[in-house]
Design brief:
Elements (H helix, E strand, L loop, with lengths): L1 H41 L3 H6 L2 E12 L18 E16 L2 E12 L7 E13 L2 E8 L32 E10 L3 E8 L26 E2 L9 E10 L2 E11 L4 E6 L5 E7 L1 E13 L2 E11 L5 E12 L7 E12 L11 E11 L6 E9 L5 E11 L3 E11 L14 E9 L1
Parallel strand pairs: 8-12
Antiparallel strand pairs: 1-2, 1-21, 2-3, 3-4, 4-5, 5-6, 6-7, 7-9, 9-10, 10-13, 11-12, 13-14, 14-15, 15-16, 16-17, 17-18, 18-19, 19-20, 20-21
Length: about 425
Amino acid sequence: MRVLVLSCLLALTLYIARSGVASAQEAEAEASVGEVEEEQEDRETFGDRFRRGDLFGYFNAQGRFFPQPARNPAGLPVTNDYWFNGAMAWEPGFFMNVTDYMNFELILFGRVDQHDRNRTHGDIREGFFELFFDQWTFGFGIHKVFWGVTESRHLVDIINQTDLVEDFDTDIKLGQAMVTTSFTHDAAGTYSLYVMSWARPLVFPGPLGRPTLPIPVDNDLRLYQSRLKQGQIDVAFRWSHSMAGFDWGLSYFFGTTREPQLFTTTNGAGLPVLQPLYELIHQGGLDLQYTREGWLLKLESIVRGGQGPTFAAVVGCLEYTFYQVTGSIVDIGLILEYIYDGRDNNTFVVFENDFFAGMRLSLSDVGSTEFLLGSFIDAKDGSVFIAAEALRRFGDHWKIGLEGRGYIPQKGNIIRFFQNDAQIQVDIEFYY
């Protein structure tokens, strides 16, 4: 009888234990299913990331005022004699984190100009995918890359074509189709490789633009040294590094030049025009900056072959900034640069043997107010080009810029072409 009772108790105990284990397993399974369902619910889809992308950009309304009547130094009929030119521009952008290892950025640009049809144009500034893997980055699409440290000229900045119809200062660039990769090492610096094609032509202001060249450039007549023309494959490499206050970059470029030579010819109507020639060039470059307290010492230099005799060019800069002058919110930066360009060809180069002196005044106020004043002085004949600029932000979305330019040329200097094109420019911009 005892054996029977013990057997029944043992069987009941095993049943309860098995039931408990089964219940625990079922609970674990249900918890796992719940976690998977939560993970599936929390996992972002492409649509989620797209909707979370960042829209940004600005609208620009611009007015240019010309106090003097236009004239043509070449004796050709004047077609751009007006005192005011209006223009509007829009630059919309979109940024998206496609995956945890890939970003995409799209920036478009378009401008409508009152007089100059060459300045009425559009461009893809950026349309670029970038992937990140530890110390490596890979990118492909349309992209802008900036090299350089000096203020007056960026000799080494050769990847992108200048958007010259936007501004003669050569700081605004067009997008460039490319595939690129870079490797970064803390001790050895960054090594970047660029493979590009479809080089953009340099577009000059047209006959109705101000300022413009006395003889217009006809891009329909452009010539290429490469049999592939714009399809030529360009290659560039750059090594950059920082150490002990020094920042430097060594670069090499082979491909279609961004600065064509210009030769006088006639178009189909028998009128004189300038014909651009895009040759294949080799260019080695160095940009260097040394920082010590308020001092900045800068250097850019290149050696280029392929456009006539091999030549060198250099820009040396000395800059000092006085921070919080006499305990105020004012920072004053003083800049002195020397520019030398040894080329002996028909490229459009305004400053070949010049000094640049400038002053930057920044107010650490709510509107981030800035004043810039600079002048180029020809070391040979004393010709002067003066530029001044003031910028201020209003609120979170508005910015106003005021700019003035003037020319004091001597006989034979290239800036005599623009002697009557002194201008005052007003820009009103809305950012979002």
